[in-house]
């Protein structure tokens, strides 16, 4: 019987051993010498278990999908961090939160994906009690960090666009908020880390196969804890984010009523005078404001896409958890497959965010391209001395053109 053990690690699936379909290797054994219900030797019994846990064809497909997420997620989230680090013009408050989200996604893919995939496929936790606590704790923390980071991003954008005079967002406050996010996330996952432990299956042979990583408290405590987490880390945050982005959308797409968008011109400015018509009217007075509005609209669309993708990827597993802990879903092969797919969707979300940035943000797209271009130029360093210089400055949009111009003038 498979069941999902946690909400924040929604895909951890534990199994009891159904031996009904096993092939009996030694049916001629004496019944009086039987040590198990199949009356086979211990070696044959372990071979039967091995046959059961060996990946089936659809599980090999699942492994391939997870491997794709592993490669794409690690490369993509690393590129996000490198892009903001190398380009000083991208060190904005929103991008600090995006980097924090990328770090959480990178950690969950690197540390949590491999052991949990092996656990899902083989129905066995091979890594001991300490890793049982650590891996699932880090996974819970990373999911909490992702949810809280998206919540802080939505609140930051809401204040910046809808109430620009009420709260001034700064890099220092963003860093303080990130520290608070990690602290709260660590505390949220702590109770589960305390009660998680390995549990051997009651088999008649001494084997590590089918060892589980499960809660040591009662079923009622697990039910209450999981339902509270669903409320705190899914329902409440996304209700708040829906409100903030709805308000942001109304403000940004209502160009006649945008707070803080008045454009003020100095009377002695030549460009401002050139913008005046015959009657002294400012024909181009709204040009700067229009550009700022369009920039904010693009940023808001990207953030809404990230939030929407997160909610869609985590909805199936939360739905399964709610139904399991309220009405009690019967375990069927279809539900097992649905649980495995919902598990994969949670990991896939961590790999999709960099793809969204690449599609919807020109600066990230340019930095991703420059990073790969830089690596290619490094290989040609010996052939072309200029390649080293271009590689050094190609990822810094703010200073690159200026430095190249000064070098060409010097020559």
How would you explain this protein's 3D organization?
The protein has helices at 42-53, 57-86, 93-122, 128-162, 171-195, 219-252, 270-274, 287-326, 333-360, 362-379, 385-393, 397-410, and strands at 3-4, 13-14, 196-199, 212-215. 68% of the residues lie in helices and 3% in strands. The longest helix is centred in the last third of the chain and has 40 residues, at 287-326. Strand 1 (3-4) and strand 2 (13-14) form a beta hairpin. The chain starts with a strand and ends with a helix. It is mostly helical and 411 residues long. The strands form two sheets. It has a two-stranded antiparallel sheet. It has a two-stranded antiparallel sheet with strand order 3-4. Helix 3 packs antiparallel against helix 4 and helix 4 packs antiparallel against helix 5 (171-195). GO terms for molecular function: orexin receptor activity. Keywords: G-protein coupled receptor, Membrane, Receptor, Transducer, Transmembrane, Transmembrane helix. This is G-protein coupled receptors family 1 profile domain-containing protein. The chain crosses the membrane at residues 60-85, 97-117, 137-155, 176-196, 224-245, 302-320, 340-360. Pfam families: 7tm_1.
Shape: elongated
The assembly state of the depicted protein chains is single chain
Strand content: under 5%
Helical content, roughly?
A: 55-70%
Order of helices and strands: EEHHHHHEEHHHHHHH
Which residues sit in consecutive blocks of at least 5 with pLDDT less than 50? 1-29, 261-287, 387-411
What is the average of the pLDDT values?
77
Radius of gyration in whole Å, from Cα? 28 Å
């Amino acid at each position: 019987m498979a069941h999902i053990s946690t909400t924040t690690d929604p895909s951890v699936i534990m199994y009891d051993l159904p031996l009904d379909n096993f092939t009996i290797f030694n049916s001629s054994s004496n019944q009086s010498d039987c040590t198990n219900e199949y009356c086979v030797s211990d070696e044959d019994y372990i071979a039967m278990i091995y046959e059961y846990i060996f990946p089936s064809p659809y599980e090999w497909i699942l492994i391939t999908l997870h491997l794709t997420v592993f490669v794409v997620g690690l490369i993509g989230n690393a590129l996000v961090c490198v892009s903001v680090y190398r380009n000083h013009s991208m060190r904005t408050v929103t991008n600090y939160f995006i980097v924090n989200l990328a770090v959480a996604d990178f950690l969950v893919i690197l540390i949590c994906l491999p052991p949990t995939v092996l656990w899902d496929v083989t129905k066995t936790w091979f890594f001991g009690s300490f890793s049982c606590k650590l891996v699932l704790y880090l996974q819970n923390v990373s999911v909490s960090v992702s949810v809280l980071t998206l919540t802080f991003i939505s609140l930051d954008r809401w204040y910046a666009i809808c109430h620009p005079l009420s709260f001034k967002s700064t890099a220092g406050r963003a860093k303080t908020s990130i520290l608070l996010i990690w602290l709260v996330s660590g505390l949220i996952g702590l109770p589960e880390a305390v009660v998680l432990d390995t549990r051997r299956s009651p088999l008649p042979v001494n084997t590590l196969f089918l060892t589980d990583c499960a809660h040591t408290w009662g079923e009622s405590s697990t039910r209450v804890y999981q339902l509270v987490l669903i409320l705190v880390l899914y329902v409440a945050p996304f209700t708040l984010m829906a409100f903030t982005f709805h308000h942001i959308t109304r403000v940004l797409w209502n160009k006649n009523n945008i707070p803080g968008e008045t454009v003020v011109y100095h009377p002695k400015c030549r460009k401002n005078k050139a913008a005046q018509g015959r009657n002294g009217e400012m024909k181009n007075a709204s040009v700067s404001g229009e550009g700022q509005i369009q920039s904010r609209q693009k940023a808001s669309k990207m953030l809404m896409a990230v939030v929407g993708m997160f909610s869609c990827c985590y909805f199936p597993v939360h739905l399964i958890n709610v139904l399991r802990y309220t009405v009690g879903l019967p375990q069927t092969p279809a539900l097992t497959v649905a649980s495995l797919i919902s598990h994969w969707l949670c990991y896939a979300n961590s790999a999709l965010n960099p793809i969204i940035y690449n599609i919807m943000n020109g600066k990230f797209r340019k930095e991703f391209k420059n990073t790969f271009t830089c690596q290619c130029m490094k290989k040609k360093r010996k052939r072309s001395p200029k390649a080293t210089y271009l590689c050094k400055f190609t990822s810094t949009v703010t200073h690159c053109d200026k430095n190249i111009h000064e070098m060409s003038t010097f020559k």
